[in-house]
Each structure stands twice: as structure tokens, then as C-alpha cells.
């Protein structure tokens, strides 16, 4: 039997664990409802002890990442779907209007339509060539969702957008070209 101390902002949390293989220990941590995760992530220091021998296992620098699907996605379906693709070990899914841990019992639901909250700049040359950044929510899960699918005033943006300028769901930078 093993025990671990997980150091949270409110103080240490003690949990019990067991050896599941020669190289792996398993600790079960119930939902922690009294920890504030404003960014949705928190790296906590963890110290593991072999309880029977009262022996600290060498684990300097061992951290445990605590996370909240709801806080990371901030009620944005595309952010949640991006977590599914880029961080599958977190087991987040979009369900009934929020991003939840996949072990919650609900059917996966579809994302709402994109919502644009701001465009910058708000004016450009009539001949085009203006680089615009579109801000909003549910603006795609991955770059290919928006790559050749954005129009401004009914005119397609060209493919000069760069992947590094795309923030999943939140913003996309495109160059607008006028016809003629």
C-alpha cells in the first residue's frame, strides 16, 4: 500500500494507492470540489510514500496535473472539441451545452453555430489586401475547419492565413481580397 500527499493551494490532500505493475502505481482521487482552477489547470506537487516501510519514494519534481474540462472550455464547444483532439488523456467531451469529463453520463451533442464578437480592423482598403482578425466563439476546432471557409462581406479570404495565427475557436487571422 502506498500513500501520497498532493499539495493544493488549500493544503495537502492525502490519498491511498496501490501498485498495479512493476513500474506503475495507481491512486484514486475523488472529485475535488473545493479547489479553484480559474485557468482550468493546476500542477500540484506530489510526494509518494511506501506506507508499509514508511519510506519516501524518490520523486523530486513529481507533479500531478489537476484539470477542469468546464473551466478550460469556458462554455465554448470548439475549445472542448479541440481538447478532445489535442489532449485526449483529459477525457473531455461536449455534452448538453458544456464541456464535461467523459465518464459523466450524457450523450455527446453538436456544437452551436459560430458566433463573431469582433473584427479587427473594422475598415480596410476597397481593393482588398487587408489582414483581418476575427474574434468569437465556436470558430472551428482545428485550422482546416476555417482554412478556406471564411468570407468578409461575401468575399472569400485568401489562404494566406497561418496556423500559428489561429487560436482554436477564438480567433482567425485572414487576408481579405476584393474582386476586381
UniProtKB/TrEMBL annotation:
Residues 114-160 form the IPT/TIG domain. Signal peptide: none annotated. InterPro entries: Ig-like_fold, Ig_E-set, IPT_dom, Plexin. Transmembrane segments: none annotated. GO terms for molecular function: semaphorin receptor activity. Gene3D superfamilies: Immunoglobulins. One of its GO terms (biological process) is regulation of cell migration. It comes from the Eukaryota. GO terms for cellular component: plasma membrane; semaphorin receptor complex. This is IPT/TIG domain-containing protein. SUPFAM superfamilies: E set domains (SSF81296).
